Amino acid sequence: MPLNHRSTLTQFLIEERRRFPSASGDFNALILDVAIACKAIARAVAFGELGGFLGNHAAEQGGSTNIQGETQKKLDVLSNDVFIRRTEWAGNLAGMASEEMDLPYQIPGNYPRGKYLLVFDPLDGSSNIDVNVSVGSIFSVLRAPRDLDEMARELQRDVTEADFLQAGSTQVAAGYALYGPTTMLVLSVGSGVNGFTLNPNLGEFMLTHPKLQIPADTQEFAINASNSRFWESPVKRYVDECLAGKPGPRGKDFNMRWIASMVAEAHRILMRGGVFMYPRDTKDAAKPGRLRLLYEANPVGFIIEQAGGRASTGRVPMLDVQPTSLHQRIGLVFGSRNEVERIERYHTEPARSDSNTPLFAVRSLFRDQDS
Ligand code: AHG
Ligand code: MN
Ligand code: MN
């Protein structure tokens, strides 16, 4: 393997920090602790069945579910613990919130508290874990509300759900780790997006993908087509037009992908463009969308926008949404800018009756061939 002199994540963070001479270093310390958590999770994922890590959590007791009502995998629970243990001790955090915890996590009394909030999905795509398909971790760093920040560390009050209900545009940083053929960490501290590959010999993340940019146009889309009967008409229209291909209104053929690990889809889109949709649908009135705002849509939205792409609910920019609860679900569309803008435009145009519109006379996978 050729020797090279790429930056390590540590070097990258120190060089970034030099632009802010008054910075305390707490933020860098936090990101480096998150990176250690991701390395630990990468090892657990790599050992898989050999480490006894596959399957459902507490299977002998009939399994456990999280607040979303989803069955927790052993690796969901382990990854959540790793995130907590690696970041709680250092005095950088006021509190944490995670997909796998109903309530905010309080920093134990024997540790100092700090000025940041960490919000994470410890293992995204975990339904894929037992079939050895890529999974990842997603994280978002917020500033703790001012009253917390200004309190003496030893007097700092507990965090509440309300402290975390900040619009995505206020994120200080967001990132994800992808546990695929290589382990990567993709990070934005609000000045573009940089990708790091884990060098397994050194155990260090090395800067391999500086200044990532998403192409504005694409011919690839990702959506779970089994939900098509529940889609709203702007989404149906968009997908129908993609499927109509070259002879259809778009005048070009599209390719489709669905990994069922959003973090892996986000990474593909960062690498070569594309559009991802898990839109609001009518499947379950209690769930406006499948994905969660605070630890899925917002951090991925931040990264995508920092790379020149766009993230939206379909109606409004994702990062403008004022959250109303910790585990809130939301419709999510992100990726190549021109495609996301097109989907947003379709949401503002008056509903159209598909069968009367010549545009939709094209046969597609999603319509009755006899209609
Ligand atoms: P998680 O494993 O954290 O619960 O998230 C899974 C998410 C996301 O990664 C993926 O895009 C989506 O669920 C897959 O949903 P379908 O099962 O409907 O394909
Ligand atoms: Mn997830
Ligand atoms: Mn998860």
Structure, explained:
The chain is of the alpha+beta class. It folds into 2 domains: 9-209, Fructose-1,6-Bisphosphatase, subunit A, domain 1 (Fructose-1,6-Bisphosphatase, Chain A, domain 1, 2-Layer Sandwich); 220-360, D-Maltodextrin-Binding Protein, domain 2 (3-Layer(aba) Sandwich), CATH 3.40.190.80. Helix content is 28%, strand content 19%. The chain is built from 9 helices and 15 strands. The strands form 3 sheets. It has an 8-stranded mixed beta sheet, with helices on both faces. Strands 10-9-11-15-13 form a 5-stranded mixed beta sheet, sandwiched between helices. The protein has a two-stranded antiparallel ribbon with strand order 12-14. Strand 5 (173-179) and strand 6 (183-188) form a beta hairpin. Helix 2 packs antiparallel against helix 3 (74-87). It starts with 8 loop residues before the first helix and ends in a 23-residue tail after the last helix. 45% of the residues are buried. Bound molecules: 2,5-anhydro-1,6-di-O-phosphono-D-glucitol and manganese (II) ion (2 copies). The site of one manganese (II) ion (MN) has 6 residues, from strand 3.
Domains, number: 2
Would you identify the regions where 5 or more consecutive residues have pLDDT less than 50? 355-371
CATH architecture of the largest domain: 2-Layer Sandwich
List the helices and strands in order: HHHEEEEHHEEEEEHEHEEHEEEH
- Look up the CATH topology of the largest domain: Fructose-1,6-Bisphosphatase, Chain A, domain 1
Bound molecules: 2,5-anhydro-1,6-di-O-phosphono-D-glucitol, manganese (II) ion
Averaged pLDDT: 91
Cα(first) to Cα(last) distance is 59 Å
CATH superfamily of the largest domain: Fructose-1,6-Bisphosphatase, subunit A, domain 1
The residue fraction in helices comes out at 25-40%
Rg, nearest Å? 21 Å
- Tell me about the largest β-sheet: 8 strands, mixed
What is the beta-strand fraction? 15-25%
